[in-house]
Amino acid sequence: MSELPIETSQQGVELDALRLLLRRLRVTPEQLLAQTTQPVTMPTFDEYIKKVSAAVPEGSRRLYSTYWRKISEQWGHRRLDEPTPSEIRQLAEHVKRNVVRRRNARGGRSAAEHLISAIRCLYQYAVADQLIAQADNPAARVAKPRRLDSTRRALPDNRLAEIIYVAGTTGDDPDLDTLILRLHIETACRRGGALALTRADLDVEQCLIQLHEKGETVRWQPVTPTLMQALLDHFDERGGEEPTDQILRYRNGKPITYRRYDYLWQRLGKHLSWVAAQQISIHWIRHTTLTWVERHCGYAVARGFAGHNSGRTIGVTATYVRADLQEIAQALAELTGEPHPLAASTVAPPQPPA
């Protein structure tokens, strides 16, 4: 009697193992045959951009919406699984070449970077929705352009004084504009944090404000008693009522938007030629304050003052050298010359020159 071929014997062992597995899972072969796989309907870019736009946070939507429109213009009718990495690179170059030229333009590198980030966001959701496997994600194989060093820097004291003077003596609402500038000088907050500030975010007793900034971060930041009182008076005088009402408001009671910042810096640029030439913006105020804090109070306090306490970019040592709220309050007291209730020591106000 001849022996069975090795292939047939091995196949029988595998079938026995499969039958044993099915019995343990209480699954019959008939049930397996009855299961039908539903084909995946691959959406077009137009269809999927609408879905992702409704799912991302407001900050991401505001950043990516311009670039999603550009993607839609070029590929709106195409399915997500059609473009290749080389086509994504070509689209990024197209956006880079056709970027709107401004004084602070840097060859369209930022536009290309944001385009790639916007399309990566789409494909990250597509992978999560199991429309595309991560290994088939074309955006993951496209590198972003290397980011150039920022041209922003700290402003000298005399230049900052010029900005404050012009803001307080020109325009249709100098009280509002000087309050905006003081808020940013004292806290080094971002524009979004100032616009999101509500009455409920004010801890009057401890002179703290709660900032809601990019990346959905939330932090408490010390302010001087003078600024706290100014925010309260501004809110009450301009029709604020509910705890959730925005602090910064026009004279007619309507909350301000990003347009107020645009108007402010355009006006400053008309009166101060160097502001227009260097494209100074509110983020330069953040650089100015944080540079002063770092020079006078150290790197750890500057990170805490800026809300950069994650420590992801400088290693785990940041966990042990993180500045606390009292140290940040102390830095503010030294910066402004005004005592703060949380500061470790009382700071005497600067004396006028003899």
Report on the structure:
The chain is 53% helix and 4% strand. With 354 residues, the protein is mostly helical. It folds into two domains: 45-141; 157-336, hpI Integrase, Chain A (Orthogonal Bundle). A three-stranded antiparallel β-sheet has the order 1-2-3. Strand 2 and strand 3 (217-222) form a beta hairpin. The chain is elongated and about 100 Å long. The termini are far apart. The model has no long low-confidence stretch (mean pLDDT 86). InterPro entries: DNA_brk_join_enz (IPR011010), Integrase-like_cat_sf (IPR013762), Integrase_catalytic (IPR002104), Integrase_recombinase_N (IPR010998), Tyrosine_recombinase_XerCD (IPR050090). Residues 143-333 form the Tyr recombinase domain. It comes from Paractinoplanes toevensis. Keywords: DNA recombination, DNA-binding.
In short:
By secondary structure, this protein is mainly alpha-helical. The protein is 53% helix and 4% strand.
**Largest sheet: number of strands, sense, barrel closure:** 3 strands, antiparallel
Strand order, sheet with most strands: 1-2-3
Strand content: under 5%
CATH superfamily grouping of the largest domain: Intergrase catalytic core
Number of strands: 3
Span of the ends, CA to CA: 120 Å
Counting H and I runs of at least 4 residues, what is the number of helices?
15
Write the element-wise H/E pattern from the N-terminal end onward. HHHHHHHHHEEEHHHHHH
Please give the radius of gyration in angstroms.
Answer: 29 Å
- The CATH architecture of the largest domain is Orthogonal Bundle
**Portion of residues within helices:** 40-55%
Shape: elongated
CATH topology of the largest domain: hpI Integrase, Chain A
CATH class of the largest domain: Mainly Alpha
Count of domains? 2
Summed over residues and divided by their number, the pLDDT gives a mean of 86
Protein name: Tyr recombinase domain-containing protein
Pfam family, one: Phage_integrase
Keywords: DNA recombination, DNA-binding
GO biological process, one term: DNA integration
